[in-house]
Amino acid sequence: MSRTVLYCLLFAATCTAGVAHAGADDVAFRGGQTVSLQGLAASGSTATHLAFVNLAATDNRCALALATADGASLGQEMTLTLRALETRPFANVFEGLIGASGAEAQATISCEREFSAYALVADAATGRLDRVEPQETAGQATGFKSQACPAGAVCFDATGVVHVPEPPPGVPVGRVTFPAPAAVAKRLRLSIDVTVGPWYPQDPSGKHLIFWFVVNKNIDMPGLLYFLGPGKGEAFARHGIGLKHPQKIKIIKPFTAKVGHTYHVDNDYDMAGQSYTITITDTGTGEVTSLHGRPNVPSYTIKANSKFIVDMGFFPDKVPTEVPSYGWTYANVHVEAYLK
Fold it and tell me: What is the 3-state secondary structure (H, E, C) of the chain?
């Protein structure tokens, strides 16, 4: 298969023009090596797409870190599972991380087993599509900081603190994005740790967002959870695949979240088993609260170039009843996809 055809299969949206630089055959790197992709352009008119290539005949755990050209981190380092001999695209990897004016950036990748990687930089103004080759880097390898991945799942992690919302000009909303596999999923599971900060003083009983978990867009939502504070005292969930937001299924249960307490939240959307469970565990006291529902589909087809998106926090004065969670701490985002 020609390089141009392969690029178009992986990144169909970028193939409006010919490939400007075809590059050489994929360079194989040993497990434990670290490579970097330098000189990646990121702006409002330029999109950078990554491709992870698993050269092993078994599952392969890989780590990715994004940074500016001078090494400043862009978002949380992540890990992900590649299936045997899989090539996984990560479309427009810097989306939302760099302003419209743009900047030069870099990506650092390492895997536990044999791998390769490359980047495609697409310029919308000129139609130019350039391939960027990996370079082995010296020094310490990118780490594999992740939770255990259960048998039968492919897993994604952003460990440690991923977001602490701040009022504008700070950042009220945090986002973690993972490149999803093109496959049929029978179960999608998300977990996250949240430490409750001050309730929004203008509306303490408003909806403080714990997570918004979707595949690409709001219409395909394996889960959403709010905590409502004094005056309501609720855990409020919504979910649904192929449903517009007003059609999403609601689950509401009395729940008193306590300021200063950390909660481990497990959102288990088992479509094949027709079971939806959100388990909220107070990590200090061990107290458990559960919400239960039923998925509206038996499975979900994940299209090529899809993303798992997890948002935390909300903007002020944007949607009635939804309020910011300034000073709350969100950490340890973990996603499991069980595939047919």
Answer: CCHHHHHHHHCHHHCCCCCCCCCCCCCCECCCCEEEEEEEEECCCEEEEEEEEECCCCCEEEEEEEEECCCCECCCCEEEEECCCCEEEECCCCCCCCCCCCEEEEEEEEECCCEEEEEEEEECCCCCEEEECCEECCCCCCCCCCCCCCCCEEEEEEEEEEECCCCCCCCCCEEEEEECCCEEEEEEEEEEEEECCCCCCCCCCCEEEEEEEEECECCEEEEEEEEECCCCCEEEEEEEECCCHHHCEEEEEECCCCCCCEEEEEEEEECCCCEEEEEEEECCCCCEEEEEECCCCCCEEECCCCEEEEEECCCCCCCCCEECCCCCEEEEEEEEEEEC
